[in-house]
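Sample intake sheet
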Amino acid sequence: MHYYGNETIMSLEQVLRLKPSEVRILEWVRTYEFLENSYGVDESVPYFLDIRCEAEGVRIRKNRITEFPDFVCEAERLFPNVEEGLSVFHQWAEEILQQIEKS
C-alpha cells in the first residue's frame, strides 16, 4: 500500500479485503497498474480501479490502460453510500484478477 497526497494505492488483492469504514477514512483508493507474477516480476495489468468519496456519494471507475501512463475510463458509477459502491468495486477487482489468471 502506498500513499500519494490524498490517494491510497493498493494491489487488487488488497482492495478485495477493503472495508467500508476504511474507504470512508482513506476517501480515495485506487489499484496498482502492475501485478507481481509468480516469479516476483511486475507485469502490467490492463485495468486499474478507483473508488472515491465525494459530496454526491461514492464514485467508482474502471480504467483501461491504453499506453502507460495513458488510460480511458470504461465504466463509472456513482452510489449513495460506500457499502453499495464497494460491493461493485470488489466485483470489478475479482473480474480483473480472473481475466489475468486466464491469460
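Comment: Helices lie at 12-16, 20-26, 82-102. Strands lie at 2-4, 7-10, 28-31, 34-36, 42-44, 47-54, 57-67, 70-79.
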